[in-house]
């Protein structure tokens, strides 16, 4: 089961309020995988993907992101002149959300270059 408090912190309040009493374990797991992919894609933003690992300006933007997970994981990944790979980001988001059974799903979606790759938040979109 994913880390509930970390998952809920990424969701709009109304959604979190509804999920707690109503959602099944399967729904929570699927939602956590989707949230992990969204967080991972935000971390992999750039051209090339993952440039927050060497671009100090982008790294600073990610450290101020509205998402607690993006802020935390950007700090964990650090800005040390290396691109954040899909594998490195997957490792971090899977551990953060405790989605150890979701590794393949998250990794495959983070490697897919056709996925959404934007810094725009839902509120800004």
Summarize, please.
The chain has 125 residues and is mainly α. The protein has seven helices and no strands.
Q: What proportion of the residues form beta strands (DSSP E)?
A: under 5%
As a whole number of angstroms, the C-alpha radius of gyration is 14 Å
- Amino- and carboxy-terminal Cα gap: 30 Å
Tell me the domain tally.
1
Q: Mean of the pLDDT scores?
A: 88
Helix/strand-derived category reads: mainly alpha
SSE run = HHHHHHH
Helix content: 55-70%
> Could you name the ranges where pLDDT drops below 50 across 5 or more consecutive residues?
121-125
Query: Biggest sheet, open or closed, and with what strands and sense?
Result: none
Given the structure, what is the number of helices?
A: 7
- Overall shape: it is globular
Q: What is the β-strand count?
A: 0
Structure description:
There is one protein chain. With 125 residues, the chain is mostly helical. It has one domain (4-111). It contains seven helices and no strands. The chain has helices at 4-9, 13-22, 25-43, 56-63, 68-77, 86-97, 103-111. Helix 3 packs across helix 5, helix 3 (25-43) runs antiparallel to helix 6 (86-97) and helix 3 (25-43) runs parallel beside helix 7 (103-111). The protein is globular, with a radius of gyration of 14 Å. Mean pLDDT is 88; it is low at 121-125.
